[in-house]
Amino acid sequence: MKALTIIILFLVGGVSNVAQTGVQPKQEKPVVGTRISLVPPSGFIPSDRFPGYSQESTGSSIMVTEFPALLAETSSGLSTPSALSKRGMVLLKKEQVVVGGRVGVLAQVKQNLQEAEYLKWLLLLEDGKESVLITAAFPKDLESELSEAMKASILTVRVDSQMKVSPTEGLNFSLIEKGGLRIAKRISNLLLYSRDGIFPSEDINDPIFVVGQSLRNVDIGDTEAFAKARVRQTAEVTDVQIEQSNKVTIDNLEGYEIVAKAKDKQSGLPMVVYQVLLFEGQDYYLMQGLVSSQNGQSSLVMFKEMSRSFSRRKSISSVLKRSTKWHEQTVVPLKHSSRQYFAEEIYGAGIARLAQ
Q1: I need a labelling partner for 353 at 20 to 30 A (CA). Which of 111, 232, 249, 286 fits?
Q2: Is 11 in contact with 76 (CB distance < 8 Å)?
Q3: pLDDT tens sequence across 144-153
Q4: Dist CA 64 CA 37 (whole Å)
């Protein structure tokens, strides 16, 4: 399959050094599930949905996402208004920065979400062969109260490249690995499973499976219609035709299990899409698998076994003892096959889109 472009909003401008923020290092707090620490703004608490901090009373948040791509890759294709407009974003300002000794870009955008206007500070930093995105989002009508404080907060970011972090740390769910599928990578609050944990996969026919939690409360309405709409939004496939849609109960959560056939947008290769959405009030958990039709039947067995092993874990508050609502993910342009970065696209174009 040909390369796929996913959007992250990052643009290159003039350089400034903001390593010194005036905030004492002793105030830095870890972001659970990442190698990142920062000084959160006053009144912000660790989020129980994504790696970062939030303030529910104002609908503001700071989210950290680590991407398996070079800074040069994540910054490509982001200098055009069309790339921003696909997420309904408008660039307000941008500059190159150095934060904690790392080169990066700081940008501010505005975006309309659910009939409300939000502002976002986006900080993208290099981390060897990977990159780190920190997104600070807040309502525009609270700009005078929150903008500078949230900007100052993300400029206190420190990355500990040597730190070892469990891919499941801080997540509110767990799965049992089945067949040959193993955890390959974590992206924010989403886990990617691949054949033998190899990422990217060496065979385009190998299955990919992801599981994640919604980033905020969502007005779901008709749950089956919601689930069907979600599977039709699966990125990098077209001609989605739902073949099965059945009610399912897993871990005492009701939802829908869907099997669909589709075609890869770029190659036309026949694909099988598997999806389970489990609902918990206005929250939901997404499990989705993608595989070529060639390996469709055998992979569906693994997908179903894995989805049935899903269970919720107790609140991450116990994890947070080691450290002192919403958020829409901003997505990065990565030039890899659609299978290789199916997880990022699900996270960005799926969960984030439904969170709008």
Answers
A1: 249
A2: no
A3: 999 999 999 9
A4: 10
